[in-house]
Amino acid sequence: MDLVHEINQSKLFELAAILQEPLQSLPIRLDNTPVFTYSSAPVEGVDIIVYSDSLKETADWICKKKYASSGRLNTTQFRFLLTLSNQTENKKDISHLQQLKTILDNTHDGMIVIDQDLTITIFNKSAEKMTGLSKEQVLGKSILEVMPNSQLPRVMDSGIEEVNQEQILANGTKIYTTRTPILNQEGRKLGAFAVFKDITEIVDLAEEVTNLKSIQTMLRSIIQSSEEAISVVDEEGKGIMINPAYTKLTGYTAEQVIGKPATTDISEGESIHMQVLKTRKPVRGARLRVGPNRKDVIVNVAPVIVDGLLKGSVGVIHDVSEIKGLTEELNRARQIIRTLEAKYSFEDIIGSSEEMSFALDQAKLAASTPATVLLRGESGTGKELFAHAIHNASSRKFNKFIRVNCAALSESLLESELFGYEEGAFSGALRGGKRGLFEESNGGSIFLDEVGELSQNTQAKLLRVLQENEIRRVGGTKSIPINVRVIAATNVNLEKMIADGTFRQDLYYRLNRMPIYIPPLRARNNDILLLAYHLLQKLNQDYGRNIDFISKDAEEFLLAYHWPGNVRELENVLGRAIIHMSHTDSQIDRSHISLLSIEPSKKADVHLQDMTETNEDEKTLAEQIDAFEKRILTEAIERFRGNKTKTAKSLGISLRNFYYKLEKYNLDEKVRK
């Protein structure tokens, strides 16, 4: 009843009623103070509910049911208010104190109040959260008991306020606190209070902001220094960032784009930015025209999504005209390099016909093996091109590739060039001797063109190279080991030369290990126009012209011709046509190739006398067998209307063997499509 007495003695508080449990009597009688049970308590005129700590749950229930708008204090907190109220003459200040207590209890900053006995009287929710202590654990207890490192007792003793002091609580929380003594008007010390805030979160946030600024600066620098044109828009499709490469490509500056719709820079086509913002899906490889110069570009755009929310989109723009220019420049450079170094690959061999596809397959197979290759075909079919491609597709491609035209050198000179010579081997020999081409190409490949023109003596030395993998210089006695891949080529009938005794049969077997037949142009009509347009590019470069097309009449004219000179003749015809054209012409017409006279297609057996014309009695057995085989082949070709695959299958021979027989008997015209 001490608290009741204190309230009655107070000038600023009035005891409205006492609430008690049913059937419970007070220890003393209070004549002027009504007593109610919890259920019959009055609702009007109550500002503060004061409760004992042991009845907190009951007090919470009563306030919730009847006094939701009233303040609520335990006895310790109320006694602190009594102390403060004794210094106040205006009764209205009590409601202000009540409101203040409510505000402080819900403020984000932590607050602790102690009285002159160092007892904790106020401990708000934020203080609970930061310290990890509950009100029930601390209220009514000494500050030094629950928080031994508290500086509030020192502040109360000194009477000096401490502002923004850094402190680490027992649970590791880092705070900034302001400690203030509580004094009455006479300067008497009534207690002290502390207001503090958790700066751990602030420090983390500051570090995060700093990191974000660093990342933003870095990303902006990357975008600005990129050589790719970049454009960024917000979720509404308005420009928020471009880089110098974008300005260079489109011609638009930041002032013309930033804050403007994404369609501002488009001169032809739909905005990809708006499409991406609508679908929230990236778009790649879209073609547009942008800027006042209507630049042809390819655009890649991706959405920017943060935490599931669309924030905008980023676009990267590529100048198609620049890409085309670089590609053409690269192709021209490659052609120049190949012209200087005479290097070709399978990609340079033009042809999609069945005959050429078969020859290419055989050549690629040969490239994967170290075997000697024999290229057979008419002059101008591209045997040297095949030789280069085989070397460049083999494991020897990084070593030397040496070309030798066996028909262009005399026998004595060819031998010394191929095998080298020792000092004094002949008059005029260099001092110290000379390495031959086989030695120079050691580890690589050597291409022997027109191998059928070799003399018997040179054939014997070449056979030794192929058998023993060693050479002997002219005038020398020491054998020199070599590792060279031989690619030979011929346009003559080696089998006939063997029969005539002009070519060694044993050398033939060594060279013919991997034979490849390259069909003449007349046997692959489907490739004529492909080759014509490919050769046009080369001739344009050689003559500084810009001829892009061949008229329909000219195409039909080219397809009708027999092409005895094969691809070399086709290049000659096109080059002669370009020379006689006007510099303003961009298309080859029929009139431009009028210098070419059409000859009717001659059957292959017109070029060589049919052996059947010779008196049968004058023929040898081999000649009669060949004539009989030729007739069988001719009949089979006609029966299957020139279909090579079906003809070879019906005869029970391989397609490759069929090609050899076509060449042997000059029957390729009969299978021309």
Automatic annotation (TrEMBL):
Database matches in InterPro entries: AAA+_ATPase, AAA_lid_NorR, Homeodomain-like_sf, HTH_Fis, P-loop_NTPase, PAS, PAS-assoc_C, PAS-like_dom_sf
Domain Sigma-54 factor interaction intervals: 349-579
Species name: Fictibacillus nanhaiensis
Name of the protein in its database record: Sigma-54-dependent transcriptional regulator
Any one Pfam family match given in the protein's UniProt record, by short name: Sigma54_activat
SMART domains assigned: AAA, PAS
PAS domain: residues covered: 96-167, 215-266
Gene3D superfamilies hit by this protein: 1.10.8.60, Homeodomain-like, P-loop containing nucleotide triphosphate hydrolases, PAS domain
